[in-house]
Amino acid sequence: xxxxxxxxxxxxxxxxxxxxxxxxxxxxxxxxxxxxxxxxxxxxxxxxxxxxxxxxxxxxxxxxxxxxxxxxxxxxxxxxxxxxxxxxxxxxxxxxxxxxxxxxxxxxxxxxxxxxxxxxxxxxxx
Length: 126
Description:
This is Nucleic acid-binding protein. The structure is a single chain. This protein has 126 residues and is an all-beta fold. The protein has one domain (37-125). 0% of the residues lie in helices and 41% in strands. The protein is built from no helices and eight strands. The strands form two sheets. Strands 4-5-6-8-7 form a five-stranded mixed beta barrel. The chain is globular and about 45 Å long.
């Protein structure tokens, strides 16, 4: 599974992808897979009041991927929000995306459990 950010014709990069660029409104016609890159933690928090099926406490972080190596990008970085694999994280830490089969327990008091049966990425400190 990929962790795609969208790139428009003006070089703006956003995560997640959008049909139209949030910055300028142009179509996002290219993507870049962030799953094989590392990122830096910009800020983080511990959530202790989580939705059904989400671990408690749940550590979340906004991370910044350096994309200065992309010729088609005019931006220097793209940010993403996600769960952290551990409670031990600090601003400035380097993390990598790791795919997990289940981000929440689909059986935990949810009316339509199959609607919650999906995986995704968490940030794992390097």
